[in-house]
Every structure is written in C-alpha cells, then in structure tokens.
Design a protein that fits this description.
Blueprint (H helix, E strand, L loop, with lengths): L1 E4 L2 E6 L4 E6 L12 H12 L3 E5 L9 H15 L4 E7 L1 H7 L6 E5 L4 E2 L2 E2 L7 E6 L7 H10 L4 E6 L9 H12 L1
Parallel strand pairs: 3-4, 3-5, 5-6, 6-9, 9-10
Antiparallel strand pairs: 1-2, 2-4, 7-8
Helix pairs in contact: 1-5
Amino acid sequence: METVINGIACTYNIFGEKAVLLCPPHPEMGGSRFDVRIMRISEELNDAGITTLAFDYRKPFRDGVGEVEDAIACLRFLRERFESVAVVGYSFGSVVASNLLEANSLVLISPLRKINSIGLKNSETPKLVIVAKHDQIIPYEESVEIASWLNPPRRVVEVETDHFYTGKYDFLARTVREFLE
C-alpha cells in the first residue's frame, strides 16, 4: 500500500505483529524504496508475516541529517502501531538506521563509518551486520573493523559478493528474515 507520512512517500505492507523499517541507500546515487535489495528483503519479510515500511528520503538532499529525520518520522509512525520495530539499512541507509535509537533491533548491510554529515552510531541494540567480501565501496578490511567496533550483541555475516549483493538477493533476504524472526 502506498502512503505518505509527514510528506515522505512510503510503501507500507501490513502483516502480523512485528514491523520493520527499511532505510534505502543514498538518494543522490539512485537510492529509493524501490531499491532491489530493499524490495527483496521486504517481500521475504512479508512472506514471513512481518509488516514492512520502506520510504523515500524527501528532497532536496539534506546532507544526511534530514534523511535521519525522515527515518525518525517513519519509525515513530510504526512505533505508534507496533510494539516491536526493527530497522534495516543498506549502505547509506545503514548509517541512517544506526542513528535511530528507538529500534528494537538493527540490520546494517554494508555499513559505512561516515557519509556526508552523519556517522555510524554505536549502541547496545541487538544487531546483524552483513559485510560484502568484494565490496567496491567499503574495503573488506574496513568492513571487518566497522563490524568489530560495533557493540554486542551483534552477529556478523560475510557474503562472497560485491557492494550491490549481485547474485545474492535471496540469501541476503533470508539472512535478514532469520535474524528478525
């Protein structure tokens, strides 16, 4: 179902008692709620009976800070309706996701330390960190350092793929579902 939350265009698929907010990649690099990885994860979670909300960051681009504000508005929308809300972010979206302090759990896919005016936030929130071993944007060694820097509880999954998870969409979606179930 298409909806708008505080001027933010969203796709809201209602299933079950749990909810997941999906934070897309960088909007200036084509990232949107229709990103193939975000959509595949949403489909997998919906099939498992989990509600999803994917959104587009409002324009113009606000250097990361405004995009975190958009995600907070969407998280509040879900928190008003669901007791348990997880947040999933891919690339830029993982940095956005880490800034959402009210999440019950986090999935950070190819997280970066910093991008634009926002940095990756550390927390005690249970988290899954997914690292691409052949990432063209975040070198593997840096990804491992980032994952190690994050506080437990955390689970780290390394995937034999590139930054775009080419050929691994189903594996990525299943891994996220298994962590959030």
